[in-house]
Amino acid sequence: MDLFIVLVICLSFLIFLFLWNQSYAKGKLPPGPTPLPIIGNILQINIKDVTKSLSKLAEVYGPVFTVYFGMKPTVVLYGYEAVKEALIDQSEEFSGRGSLPIVDRINQGLGIVFSSGEKWKQTRRFSLMVLRNMGMGKKTIEDRIQEEALCLVESLKKTNASPCDPTFLLSCAPCNVICSIIFRNRFEYSDEEFLTLIKYVNENARLASTSWIELYNAFPFLIHYLPGSHNTLFKNIIEQRKFIFENIKKHQEFLDLSNPQDFIDYFLIKMEKEKHNKQSEFTMDNLITTVWDVFTAGTETTSMTLRYGLLLLLKHPEVTAKVQEEIDRVIGRHRSPCMQDRSRMPYTDAVVHEIQRYIDLVPGSMPHATTQDVKFREYIIPKGTAIVTSLTSVLYDGKEFPNPEQFDPGHFLDESGNFKKSDYFMTFSAGKRVCVGEGLARMELFLFLVSILQHFTLKSLVDPKDIDTTPALKGIGSIAPFYEVRFIPV
Questions:
Q1: What is 196-263 written as a DSSP string?
Q2: What does the DSSP 8-state code read for residue 402?
Q3: Burial of 422 (0-12, 13-18, 19+ CB in 10 A)
Q4: Its pTM surpasses 0.70
């Protein structure tokens, strides 16, 4: 047994040296800390807060450097200039998707978020077309969000101003909007199937940002076979996919090829048109994965932003008061807010943007990869190299956002109190991999937050100065800490 262990270590060391030599033979990677065999730089990175570790490394190695997560070299881009240069100026060369083993194990390179190459291009182009046909960015989807906002308000009233954890209700609203796009219908907030779906979404978001999953992504060949929370994550995703497949089968029974009603219908019709094309990217497996991508991203990111946003408003009651004054002046109490109101509500618009900037929802974005050998500054980055773009370094840039550690809507206001756009606002990433649902998310955040503040006074259970807004977890995503709030009708 001892001899076997020695052989495994020696073999792993040889594999590491081979990969190391391959990377340097193919290109001149940026500098970085010297990696150890097999484990790379994992001892120099705090897996509970990778963002902070990368910030410290950037101070030493500059805005472009290389770290090894296990045996895999990853080029880190830190700061607005480096991120913009890659994602916008050289968007095609950096448009690949880097490996995220915890998801790759299930998705197998399918879908829209974690695919690359022709599969990604076709699936993304098609999904954007369908989402626009379904009303994204138009009045039709705005009407749908307004209806759901009213349902959310009614559900919040039923809490009777008692202390409550808002996580579930703030997940229901965006989840129902995305369900209406994908599945054609919404669910009652008491529906057991709906409750289970949302439980999976929230649990998966939390698990995916734990240090255990960071370890899994660095050492999948080892961690996969151990007991741990990755198994719960896999089980949850499998259950979600079963639900999606059952819905697809129902759609197939009643499909009208000339009258698509939702995302699944559009995809099934595309599959029918390409059924004789053996190279088609429009397959049942890709449909299931694409629907899972849209459903998960469309629910989790918006609900987490709402949840974190209310916590920040509890922490800063003076900000909440200014927003409610603007709501009273522009909208009043008796009509639903609409997107046209936003241009007349610069302070509220600035608050929504500052919430997104401050919470830094996806600190390192999703991993990118180079689609070809790339000359980037004085380096040659080989094709397929993983790229991490530090969105934190952009959203917390002190030159663009003075005192970035402070929550301050003034970051998005000019001297006259008008809303001020910023190229540094990259919460949805940038370039060819920018979030497909950005337009939908912007609508939801504005309409849901304004609807809540139009109807309720937010009351914290503790003194605002004692509220801690530090993320409970900071990994792939920033997870809001647990809190309770009272929704007092106005």
A1: HHHHHHHHHHHHHTSHHHHHHHH-HHHHTTS-SHHHHHHHHHHHHHHHHHHHHHHHHHT--TT---SH
A2: S
A3: middle
A4: yes
- Specify the DSSP class assigned to residue 164: B
Helix (H, G, I), strand (E, B) or coil at 386: strand
What's the helix, strand, coil split of the chain in %, to 5? 55, 10, 35
Sequential pLDDT tens for the chain (490 residues): 456 555 555 555 555 554 554 444 445 899 999 999 989 999 989 888 899 999 999 999 999 999 999 888 999 999 999 999 999 999 999 999 998 999 898 899 999 999 999 999 999 999 999 988 887 767 789 999 999 999 999 999 999 999 999 999 999 999 999 999 999 889 999 999 999 999 999 999 999 999 999 999 999 988 999 999 999 999 999 999 999 999 999 999 999 999 999 999 999 999 999 989 989 999 999 999 999 999 999 899 999 999 999 999 999 999 999 999 999 999 998 899 999 999 999 999 999 999 999 999 999 889 999 999 999 999 999 999 999 999 999 999 999 999 999 999 999 999 999 999 999 999 999 999 999 989 999 999 999 999 999 999 999 999 999 999 999 999 889 999 999 999 999 9
Q: What span, in angstroms and rounded, lies between the C-alpha atoms of 276 and 284?
A: 14
User: Which of 431, 477, 475, 369 minimizes the C-alpha distance to 83?
Assistant: 431
Task: Please answer whether residues 300 and 201 qualify as being in contact, where contact means their C-beta atoms are separated by less than 8 angstroms.
Answer: yes
Dihedral angle of Cα 30, 379, 85, 128, to the nearest 10 degrees: -90
- Report the distance separating Cα 307 and Cα 36, nearest Å: 40
In 3D space, the residue among 245, 247, 230, 267 whose CA is nearest the CA of residue 133 turns out to be 267
- Contact by Cβ (8 Å): 153, 455: yes
Cβ proximity of 358 and 84 under 8 Å: no
Q: Write the CA distances from 398 to 23, 80, 403, 421, 429, integer angstroms.
A: 35, 11, 6, 16, 19
- H-helix or E-strand spanning residue 358: helix 346-359
CA distances 370 to 57, 91, 117, 128, 366, Å, are 22, 10, 11, 23, 13
CB 70 within 8 A of CB 38: yes
Which residues have a Cβ under 8 Å from the Cβ of 88 and sit 6 or more positions away? 430, 431
β 456-460/485-489 pair status: antiparallel
Is 10 assigned to a binding site?
no
Pairwise CA distance, residues 124 & 289, whole Å: 12
Backbone phi and psi for residue 2, each to the nearest 5 degrees, phi listed first = -60, -40
